[in-house]
Amino acid sequence: MTTMELPKVEVPAFVAGTKGLLIGGQWVAPRSGRTIDAINPATGETLCRIGAGDAADVDLAVAAARRAFEGSWSRWTPHERRKLILRVHDVLMDHFDELALIETLDMGAPLARTRPLREWTSQVLQFYASQTGAATVETPPNSLPGDFLTLKHKAPVGVVGGVIPWNGPLIGQWWIFGPTLATGCTAVIKPAEDASLSVLRTAELMLEAGVPEGVINVVTGYGREAGQALAEHMDVDRVAFTGSYLTAQSIVRASAGNMKRIQLELGGKSPDIVFADADLDKAVPGAAMGVFTNSGQVCVAGTRILVHRAIHDEFVERMQAFTRSIRVGNGLAPDTQLGPLISQRQLDRVLGYLEVGAREGARLAAGGTRLGGDLASGFFVEPTVFAGVSNDMTIAREEIFGPVASIIPFGDMDEALRIANDTPFGLAGGVWTRNLSTAHKVSRAVRAGTVWVNCYGVLDPSIGFGGHKMSGYGWKGAREHVDSFLYPKAVYMNLD
Predict the structure, then answer these.
(1) Which of 221, 229, 370, 431 could form a disulfide with 55 if both were Cys (CB 3.0 to 4.6 A apart)?
(2) Is 281 found in the same domain as 217?
(3) Would you tell me how many other CB atoms lie within 10 Å of the CB of residue 272?
(4) Are the CB atoms for 476 and 449 separated by under 8 Å?
């Protein structure tokens, strides 16, 4: 079902003209003078333009970050950084409706999704404010002969490079900005060229809140230019990347020059396992939105729905009915549940997988086409369900990054786990059951960084998440994330 009626919305003043790069606390034009159109994926219209930064601009941004790291920022106390993060919190809360609208215009997510991120943003900022004392000094006992005092420091690593994707920059930026401010590091972020506006506006507001010049820097541009230059830069100490494993492999190779620390959150083909005793009133909408949320543009999406044969047919029927009830349309409409895909390129990719699924013998149970009519100028595709899928089909092996669910039948727990783990990825998984023993056994056996039981996709920044196998390594959120922005240092003091 599509939704069409749009309220009158005043486009924020920030979404106009040409946006520069934010380097050293100043807006600067890219050295090349080139720009990239910022496209509204719901309409195909150009919103404004952003700078196409490249290696020369990355050099300037990294130099600004290094000066800030070695300057007065290094002398800020934990209490001062905590107060700063809380000031940033208050400024962003005052402007969050604007940020949510910018995100909806720039990457298509409905306001029904972006506006509730206010509470999540508040939570994540307050969490990082609580972590400003993470750079600790301990005095463990030692077994050395003589009179020695031993100290163990945790110190900020330095300049951090962050490359974040287009599927949720309002969220993704905080996995860089948050621990940067908490630990005393500095950062250069390269947002995706398809959705940079909310990051640029957030960074501007952070400066207004009092973040010192050079502590945060934003260089927009293409991955092959600005992103690669950031990964290769010899004065960047740590790189965090979220995106495809193919790009991650090039970043790993690029990091070898100065042995950068790396954190990677990559793709997934996550299994969501529905057992015969599951509460289908919860499991059907839960598993469906585990795929369709954000129009399927979520790394942890549970796109392989494994269903016990005893309930398979009923599940497919319920899934069909639920999928057909989802309201797809322009994200500005208050009743829209799913917006467009991010770009024509992504739309073509998803439509290609729909053709492959049908060609390989999967049965189309719902959706399967591009939406036309008043939505024809945007990048809309129906939420789609394939039944009769086997785990060797392309749609079950490759990450589609669109609203496409593959339902795969299984007979018992052993078969479910064999299918679930038969993937090069290991980002997430789900289990739907009323049996506590089943929940424990399956969640323990699924080889993935995060497993949800009788829910899907919930996230607490104080707990965090991460990947396994080809889905990357490192952790986002929790104390482990903060510690990854620090390095250990031992000090031995001879007191004789």
Answers:
(1) 229
(2) no
(3) 27
(4) no
**β pairing state of 46-51 and 35-39:** antiparallel
Contact 19, 50 (CB under 8 A): yes
Give CA–CA dist 221/45, Å, rounded: 19
pTM over 0.85: yes
Query: What is the rounded distance in angstroms from the CA atom of residue 369 to the CA atom of residue 371?
Result: 6
- Indicate the pairing of strand 2-3 with strand 35-39: unpaired
Query: Which tokens go with 105?
Result: 């215009």
In a domain, 434, yes or no: yes
List, in sequence order, every residue forming a beta bridge with 26; answer none if it has no partner: 23
The answer to whether the beta carbons of residues 190 and 165 sit under 8 Å apart is no
Contact 121, 191 (CB under 8 A): no
Which residues are marked as active site? Answer: 265, 299
Q: Count of CB atoms within 10 A of residue 437's CB? A: 8
Same domain? For 319 and 288 the reply is yes
What dihedral angle (degrees, nearest 10) is formed by the CA atoms of 345, 348, 352, 354?
120
| 3-class DSSP state of 353 | helix
How many domains are there within the chain?
A: 2
Locate 148 and state its tokens.
């020695």
Task: Kindly give the pairing relationship between strand 384-387 and strand 137-138.
Answer: unpaired
Buried/exposed 306-326: b ≥16 CB within 10 Å, e otherwise? bbbeebbeebbebbbebbeeb
- Total H helices, total E strands in the chain: 17, 27
Q: Identify whether residues 39 and 169 lie together within a single domain.
A: yes
Extended beta strands in 228-368, E state: 238-242, 261-265, 271-274, 304-308, 328-329, 363-366
What DSSP state is assigned to residue 252? H
Contact 163, 227 (CB under 8 A): yes
DSSP letter (8 states) at residue 338 = B
What phi and psi, each to the nearest 5 degrees, are found at residue 257?
-55, -45
What sign does the dihedral 245-117-197-56 (CA atoms) show? negative
Report how far residue 87's alpha carbon sits from residue 126's, in angstroms, rounded to the nearest whole number. 11
**Residue 261 and residue 255: Cα distance in Å, rounded?**
8
Taking only the tens place, the pLDDT of each residue in 413-447 is: 999 999 999 999 999 999 999 999 999 999 999 99
Residues 108 and 159 in one domain: yes
User: Tens of pLDDT along 25-82?
Assistant: 999 999 999 999 999 999 999 999 999 999 999 999 999 999 999 999 999 999 999 9
Q: Which residue range is the domain that position 74 belongs to? A: 9-266+471-491
Span between the terminal Cα atoms of the chain, in Å: 79
Q: Which two tokens stand for residue 287?
A: 């598993």
Same domain, 290 and 428: yes
| Beta-sheet pairing, 137-138 with 238-242 | unpaired
Query: Among positive and negative, which fits the CA dihedral 175, 177, 180, 186?
Result: positive
